[in-house]
Amino acid sequence: MSDAQNTASDAIGDARPVRLRDALRQARIEAADRTGVVVDLRDAEVARLEILNEALDPLFGQIPDNIDLFDRGISQGETPRLWIDVVAHVLMGRDKRIYRFVQDTRFGRIVLAESHDVPVIVKAVADYVARRMVEREHALVATPVVPPVAKKPRRRSAFWTFALGFILGAAALFGLALFASLRSL
What we know:
- The chain is built from 5 helices and 5 strands.
- By secondary structure, the chain is α+β, with helices and mostly antiparallel strands.
């Protein structure tokens, strides 16, 4: 007989009540086993990212010190990531063996490279770093901007201001005279 059948027949034969404390203890043991597996997988992810990080050391050693575009490091969150800069990082795929180099854009996340091999990802990161450095150079080389010629605002003639004031004043006096004459009637 199988173990499941033996357990079921023993439970029927014993007819003793199931204790909640025993069930909770068993559930905690099972949860700890699952957590242990998850922690082991996470540690494996971090270890693989550290291997990639070490493989990137020669590349980042060649970047001049005055260029501060890149901030490489491994984040230890729920999903470990090897950050290349603010918007690009490497994370492990679903199978925890494939490297996925992604970039966050305003339109969502795009995959720049994906491979099981470290050299392929190192090449993709090198290409990305080179493109970012060229973008930086283009941004720093600014064409001289010719300041716009300040156009003097056109000045109104004082005559038109006086004429408008005179007409409005005359209309106000006429309105007051009309109001006074209508009131006296």
